[in-house]
Predict the structure.
Amino acid sequence: MTTTAKVLGRHLARLTDGETGPRSQWIWWQVDKLTAIDGIELGPPQVNPETGNPDYSIFPGLLVAEDVVIPAGALGYRDAAVESYAQFARLREAGVIPHGVRFQASIPTPYAVVVAWAAGESQRRLWQPYKDALFAEVAAIQEAIPATDLAIQWDVAVEIGALEGVFQPIDELRSFDRVVDELVACLEQVEPPAQRGLHLCYGDYKHRHFKAPTDLGLLVRLTNAVAARATFDFVHMPVDRDHGRAPEYFAALRDLQLDGAELALGVIDYENAAARVDELVAAADTAGRPYLVATECGMARLGERGEAVTLAELLSQHARVAVPVR
């Protein structure tokens, strides 16, 4: 938080804690949280043979008993948010974080955890208990953090994988319409004036997508369907570092219906290649609409493929290409 505030300053609207420590691999930490609960244990790994990326082909698998009960607070998201917000508030009081910046809690959708880590009947048994438990923690976050200080971003990746045929949800979770229903339900858990956001994603495990998007068509279609039924304040879409250098990648943005919400595009290359960033920005500009700048996914796990890139360097790329703050 200190580094981000120092480099970006008044460019910032929302600030996360970076999801450090056990949360650094997104939803992987939920495996340990869930297997600590009676009735949930680690089973045979899940195999996803349809993925074009072998890193996504084998995942942990959970075995879930009937009528499993997830205790209040067992998932850890409420506690993590409250602890980080306390640090955020101290930094703001010290003048490190500008006033007006919101604290952002990034939360995976129930769909993400259940579909990624369970299959078949276990997925069906885990679905409602996990959804109820996660929504309860989101409510608890809002009870603990002032709404005018808060933004909650829902992380949407496994849904995209399911729609692209990579992940295997049970039949009742498989359709486009059901994905829209569940995203609307997630957004409705956040009560204004807390901000609502969507982070749409094709995965970032080892800085690779589970399937490289060739354009933004699916994400625009999904966003429009959700926006027709629920309000939100911002949506992020990834920009593939290869395909995103072509204007055609962004053509679907001309049909995007946001009704005042902000669009963020992942034009900041995770390898900190300035020339590539400039190509991605130039291609994105052809869509003719304003956007916030972002990385393809997050900025965590730097160096996990051997890249010699620092957080400050990536943030400096953001500042370099962002519209100057006046």
Q: What stands out?
A: The chain is about 35% helix and 15% strand. The longest strand covers residues 40-47. Residues 2-321 form a domain with the TIM Barrel fold (CATH 3.20.20). Residues 120-144 form the longest helix (25 residues).
